[in-house]
Amino acid sequence: MPLSGLNRSSTRPRGGVAKVELTPAPEYAGGVPSPAGSSPWAFRKDRARYSEEWVGARPLSGMVKHTLEMEFAATAESRRAVDELAQVCAARGVVAVVTMASGETLVAGYSSRFGVEYPLRMAKREETSGRLPGDMPTIAVVLESTY
User: Fold this and answer.
1) CA-to-CA distance for 33 and 105, rounded, in angstroms?
2) Structural domain contains residue 12
3) pTM of the predicted protein model
């Protein structure tokens, strides 16, 4: 059985995340863009990634793991913002509107089928100093949801 829709693209792909907007899950009404009042997260250039992975005992079992990774310069302001994000994720979860470098917009933590029942939660927070004197200290955040 031949697969359809796998023709070579005439344009070069543009990977990467250009913008991330996070909204507390109960405040997200569905659709794109995020509601007024949400603002983009200032992650380091080329230091954000979004992925979807099929998980379960059988391939294509219907469960998908959504992962959003972002890295920030470790400053007092970014530490406060990440602390607040951790509290919101623990209490209510968040919905992310992710704009890719290609212009495509994705929504994680919300679906037309489940609404905000499976929001993104903070799975990891890692702060590093760097190895060399010239390295920038960073905070890495991983948000995940599986449904």
Assistant:
1) 9
2) no
3) 0.85
